């Protein structure tokens, strides 16, 4: 299979769209909710935790699909072996370990940042005269976080699949369109030992790696 033609972010984009729909509904319902200083934090926390649970499920699906696609780029991997490898590697424990770590790009832990966002929104709702404005702003930041981690899990799964398949060297492949930044442009075509692969240079980066045969 031609590695350069595989859309490694297909499942990622599908997950982002699904989460956007769910959160648009949840934050919209929050605009209509009746709460006071006593129950506002409970209401907001409950909403964020439910959304985080939905996101975890989607991230697992994203990583699972990306892992299988990455294996398809490696010559000599039998499809039956791929199924066994992905089941052993992409696990709930692996997912939670990543979510519990400080991410090198976002510079925060997913779970603790989720709590912070919830408390910030609750405080804003207590003091603001424009509830809809605060909720819309919180929805925008929350959607950005969820989308970034969907990209992250795609990238983590690809690297893990290559490592499990014995790939030693990878090549950085940028989109090379009008949206590519100077740093990503400079990285295009460079080769790295997979253990020395540099982190993504910015949020939303869709640069990818392919195995060097």
Largest sheet: 3 strands, antiparallel
Give, in order, the helices and strands. HHHHHHEHEE
Q: Compute the separation of the termini in Å.
A: 13 Å
Topology, number of strands:
3
Task: Determine Rg (CA atoms, Å).
Answer: 19 Å
**Relative helix content:** 55-70%
> How does the overall form come out from the CA principal axes?
elongated
Low-confidence region ranges: none
Beta-strand percent range? 5-15%
Domain count = 1
Please, how many helices?
7
Oligomerization category of the chains in this entry: single chain
Query: Which structural class do you get from the secondary structure elements?
Result: mainly alpha
With strands numbered from the N-terminus, the spatial order across the biggest sheet is: 2-1-3
Overall pLDDT metric: 93
List keywords for this structure.
213 residues, mainly alpha, 3-stranded antiparallel β-sheet, 7 helices
Question: Would you kindly provide a written description of the structure presented here, covering whatever features stand out?
Answer:
The protein is mainly alpha-helical and 213 residues long. The chain has one domain (3-166). It is 62% helix and 6% strand. The protein has helices spanning 10-32, 40-72, 79-89, 92-99, 110-127, 131-164, 182-187, and strands at 169-173, 191-193, 208-211. Strands 2-1-3 form a three-stranded antiparallel β-sheet, covered by helices on one side. The longest helix has 34 residues, at 131-164. The protein starts with 9 loop residues before the first helix and ends with a strand.
